[in-house]
Design goal:
This protein is α+β, with helices and mostly antiparallel strands. The protein is built from eleven helices and twelve strands. It has helices at residues 2-46, 72-75, 96-102, 110-114, 123-136, 155-158, 177-180, 275-280, 289-292, 330-333, 348-353, and strands at 150-153, 168-169, 173-176, 201-202, 220-224, 238-239, 252-253, 295-299, 305-314, 319-323, 339-340, 367-368. The strands form three sheets. Strands 3, 5, 7, 8, 9 and 10 form a six-stranded mixed β-sheet that branches. Strands 2-1-6 form a three-stranded mixed β-sheet. Strands 4-11-12 form a three-stranded antiparallel β-sheet, with no helix packed on it. It is globular, with a radius of gyration of 21 Å.
Length: 370
């Protein structure tokens, strides 16, 4: 009798304990993101309002002189003309390395950062960059406690400047290319990787400085994600280790509003393009939302995932949790003043929940992001 009572009590307590642990990990993730956002704000104060992780601020040394992301006016501030590893940023989109350095964390690359700038990212310099890359992705203060994903190096994306850092944790927190790259002055805003193959997101002279993003309480600095979450056919997450990367590299992506995102993959969510295929043949269309939306997973009928949450860190340092259906509203992820003309590129859920935020936007009827 006593044993059966104890067993009953345990069965009642275990779910509550599990939920408590999950809630603790969610709060830990939010605390990490808040610390990173506040550090980024302090970085901006000490670096003339520059956004950390930008291709033309902390990532400038990782760009070659002739790269499309380097606008002519910024070439004068670049030390040297070849892309190289400065001991801090392991990639042009890297915000982890500069923030770790700014916060005084000691790790691989410190000796290079303290000495003269290397002339090229080769030999021992590249090896050290690989060591720093691997170190950064394992820092507990910059990693979601729920992120257990192990990524492989994406050889075809890493190109000649990639470094083999072996299997390891996937980065947890990502910026968006709209915030960390400049508008190049071209009519088509595509060299910065806003939306591959399209020119319908025009940021009108934007430069990556915190005073240019809009309200810091509205604009997102970091989102939880998994880049790349759907890169390989085997559904194994991969990571891009090129020094000079395009379209966000391992650290940034178009944004969670984009319905073909590699980082916030939710095509199998209710109402989206692959939902029916996923329900009928899950082996053909796997729901990858838990890779990016790692908190408060809710199952519906048939124990199929209905919704999941993720945290967002804003430029003012506060953090919010949102479900995957509402996570990508574009007013949070594009700079103020952006002319958005791609209503068709939004997730179906965003067009439903936020019809006034560019849901029907087109070239003839653009939506201006507030």
């Amino acid at each position: 009798m006593v044993i059966s009572i104890i067993a009953l009590l345990i069965s009642l307590l275990l779910p509550a304990l599990s939920r408590a642990r999950q809630q603790g990990r969610t709060l830990g993730c939010a605390a990490n993101m808040r610390s990173m956002a506040l550090a980024a704000a302090s970085y901006a104060q000490e670096h003339r309002d520059q956004i950390v992780g930008s291709t033309v601020t902390s990532g400038l040394d990782a760009l070659s002189r002739d790269h499309l992301l380097v606008v002519p006016a910024l070439l004068r501030s670049k030390r040297g003309t070849a892309a190289t590893f400065n001991g801090i940023a392991v990639q042009n989109f890297d915000h982890y390395g500069p923030l770790a350095h700014f916060l005084g964390m000691q790790g691989p690359g410190d000796e290079i950062a303290a000495g003269p700038l290397p002339t090229a990212d080769t030999g021992a310099v590249r090896t050290e960059r690989g060591r720093r890359f691997d170190w950064l992705r394992r820092i507990d203060a910059m990693r979601c406690p729920e992120n257990a994903l192990v990524a492989i190096v994406s050889a075809h994306e890493s190109n000649a400047s990639g470094v083999d850092i072996g299997p390891g944790p996937l980065l947890s927190y990502h910026t968006t290319t709209a915030m960390v790259t400049p508008h190049t002055g071209r009519a088509a805003d595509t060299p910065v990787g806003i939306n591959p193959g399209s020119s319908d997101v025009l940021r009108r002279g934007y430069t990556p400085r915190t005073l240019r993003v809009g309200s810091p309480a509205v604009k997102a600095f970091l989102g939880e994600g998994a880049r790349y979450g759907n890169e390989t056919e085997s559904f194994t997450p991969s990571i891009q280790t090129a020094l000079t990367a395009s379209y966000g590299g391992a650290f940034s992506d178009v944004g969670p509003w984009y319905n073909d995102s590699d980082t916030w993959a939710r095509a199998c969510a209710p109402g989206e393009a692959l939902r029916a295929v996923h329900l009928q043949s899950p082996h053909l269309a796997r729901d990858l939302r838990p890779w990016s939306f790692r908190h408060n997973l809710v199952s519906g009928a048939g124990r199929v995932l209905a919704s999941a949450d993720a945290n967002i860190a804003f430029f003012d340092g506060h953090v919010e949790s949102r479900d995957d259906a509402t996570y990508g509203q574009i007013r949070n992820w594009l700079p103020a003043g952006t002319a958005f003309m791609e209503g068709h590129a939004l997730w179906a859920s965003l067009r439903t929940f936020f019809p006034s935020q560019g849901a029907t936007a087109s070239r003839s009827a653009p939506y201006t992001v507030p």
